[in-house]
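Researcher: Please predict.
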Amino acid sequence: MTNKNDESQILEVNTRFYQALGTRDLELMGTVFVHDDRAGCMHPGWVMLQGWEAIRQSWENVFDPQDQLEIKLHNLSVEIEGDVAWVTCIQELTYIKRDPIMMNVSVSTNIFEKNESEWKMVIHQASPLPMSAQEESEENNLQ
């Protein structure tokens, strides 16, 4: 049985993660992750980074305060097993201030653990979503 209070807290931390990503806020990102060697992060197309310091540095390197990022989440799902939970979703990132405007669509898995009464992200993993043959065909027809 899912505890609605836990589910609400997990979704709040998950939302904070995407807010930090969208606003390029390193301090807010720091409130999301565990701050030890168990932390892991795999940006789309990257290898898995291990440990909070490596993850913090990666965000510091990719966050451009001039960037404007719009984020839409689709197919959001939350599963909880004791003190561990995972959120899966499709994340659609649109980089608005880039020329040309860029979009990245990935499948994301965010794993959380409960320490005392607080949920923290342990792993963020995002992998590019392969383009379907139909989408490729439609793109080619637009040229």
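Model: The mean pLDDT is 89.
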